[in-house]
Design goal:
heterotrimer, A alpha+beta, B alpha/beta, C mainly alpha, B: alpha/beta, Peroxisomal Thiolase, Chain A, domain 1, six-stranded mixed beta sheet, 10 helices, 22% strand, C: mainly alpha, 52% helix
Chain lengths: 204, 381, 85
Amino acid sequence: MPLLVRKYCHIANREVRVNGEAFPVAESDGDGKFLTSLYRSLKIDYPKFFKMDSLSKLGFLASELILRDENPRFAPREDLAVICFNRSASLATDALHQAAIQREDSCYASPSVFVYTLPSIVTGEIAIRNKFFGETSFYVCEERSAQQIFRTVRHAFHDKATRAVLAAWVECGGETLEALMALVDTECQAGIPLEEFLRGANIA
Amino acid sequence: MITIAGDSIISSLGFTAGENYRAVASGQSGIRPCSAFKGLPEPLVASTIDRERLADSFATLCPRSDGYTMLEQAAILSVAGAAAQAQVDLSGPDVLFILSSTKGNVHLLDENEKGFSPEHLYLWHTARLIAEYFGNPNEPLAVSNACISGACAQIAALRELASGAYSHAVVVGVEMLSKFIILGFQSLKALSPEPCRPFDAARAGLNLGEAAAAIIYSRVAAEAASGVALLRGAIRNDANHISGPSRTGEGSYLALNALLREAAPDDVAFVNAHGTATAYSDSMEAIAITRAGLGAAAVNSLKGYFGHTLGAAGVLESVISARALASETALATHGFKDGEKEHPLNVTDKNIHTQKARCVKMLSGFGGCNAALLFKNIKKE
Amino acid sequence: MEELILELKQEIIAVLNLEEVAPTDIADDAPLFGEGLGLDSIDALELIVLMEKNYGIKLKDPAQGREIFKSIRVMAEYIYANRTK
């Protein structure tokens, strides 16, 4: 069974591309709030977005860029898995929680920050938005390893219910903000072979 | 068939799988008032690993022990225990390591923690340290999928072995407590001030726990000494809320349903639920179990013995459940007395003899994720 | 009291990341949970932290929140009567 990428998007260096084409982002919220600007450029109404940590915002926006034109949209489905990978898990949000608890005389952990100290929450956010009841998984690896991502995505189809995988590298830590997400669909006729895609030949 | 060739647990109840299993089977709990963490606003009741015994055991295994954090030491020690039992050479190219942890060495973020490089904060680094300790040449996998991580790691092992790329997979789940984790759970008001009571009508929250647990899975039939095989596993999402359990148990029900396509509910010796003893999570599982047609099956939770060991829970509880299945026993649910009327279940209040061949392990976690595993006692057929 | 109500609205908007809500959008007597602001169980826990951090009020039982967070006015009245800072 060939694994073909039906649609993909790439968010990096404050630039967004969907299937290789530039997606314009209007600077609406000034510097440093690139993700909010992208949210506004997508013209969606989803107030929960503002409650997410940066990693979830990033993964959520990537999924919106890929899924916004799907028809039907928001139809509940169990046959789509969401599998994400990154290098630093939820380290950026971990640091926020640690800062809140560091001083014993002023120690107020925020429950809404703590929940996001699990990197896999991003897969849940995408599942909730789209009513995806299928598998959701999160793996941590040193770098964007084409071999590991390919193997894990291919293996996800061992689950007989799974017919499509929304697979992504979503890294959000320090200076880096990058999402590379692909919709791998066994029922599509034409697309980029996943292996080739992950090796970077076709990533703009 | 993918079978358990070796297993091991490091916990408050012991430093081998056998020691832990015997403690559980005789009704001992490792949950105690805990004063090891200074400056907590509320007292803590938890299940913790004896630090001195851990350091001594690791020093015996590895005289040059200062390069490893406590968490890494516990993980390595548990893998070494499983390897000794399985008599498998873990340095071979046909062996894959898979790490399961939610927070790894996150305690190193604390300003007062010194002596380890920042690399130890990364789970891939921890996974690599463990694999390298055993001389394994392959890049290990590191799963961080909230509280179902331990099941996901086993599902990943099953898939890797089924695809034929490896002959053995070493699954190791590990979690150590720190103020990072404890204060987070306190802010969620999820912790019980007393030893937890899974599925009991009077349950008042969970206890946190520390553990390292390892399973060596093999597709070599001659190594099936445990007599237990992992048949299948499934992961499903509630698509409902990032922290609140689904009121219909949707993801959990769908995961169970995926397993039961090829196993009759009548053949299930017991369901080892997640059973954290929080109000909504236990009810959610009861709904899912009933919807999946397992309402008459014996249900237990191991949280009353070990607390909730987070990323280690899936591995630890699979080790105990597999041993129970091989011993033809559905273990008692420590802390359970009276079930709730609204969502009745057949929760075990004592160890029960069973002749049935299969058991189910369930897990659920934040992000709406749920997992279920199906094990089989291969000596039964 | 009116001052405290406004202060509370601003704090809630900030701490719960209600990006697209203005203080005037929150009626003093409207229910905080359920319909309206779309707040959930984590938001309720966050309000418990807010009461402790900003007003020195520690709830013994989180279930008390259900009564206290009925509306902004009820919450403000509770804070007025019980604040230690």
